[in-house]
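Q: Got one fold?
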Amino acid sequence: MALVSAAGTGVQVPAICDTRSVRTELERRLHSDQASRTGNAPDVDKENAVRLAGIVDNCGWPPVSEFGREASLGAFLVLQHADLDLQMELVPLLRAADRAGELPPGTLPLLEDRIRVRQGMPHIYGTQIRGAGTPYLIENPEGLEERRRNAGLEPFEDYLKRFPHP
């Protein structure tokens, strides 16, 4: 498979990838993913995850410079709501995209925390919140604000204000 560099970033996109149609599809999946958040959406999540896996197989992880911020964010949100196996499989690609500046800012910490919580481990950035507005167990809470700042996340107290509290 021939590869081309996405805007000189070192992130490789297969030359046969139809960027325009994939961008459109990922943007559509972003909207369907977010619309489904108002209820239980296992069918939407599963369908989106299967399609994302196919896109990544054919195109690699969609870099922002090549696919646009909305499509890249759509791919991220689909993965964020996918099963743990797919998250574990694709997180190395997101780490590489993040290092290359090809991932929407602040998204990688959300996925890394989601994976850790699903594995029963404390999370690092304090991004995973229970329905009651309380965070899951946080690793080394004393260093939380520094980790959040280094990852480009807002202060934890401000983040918590977004969630309903009983």
Observations:
- Residues 3-104 form one domain.
- The chain is about 55% helix and 5% strand.
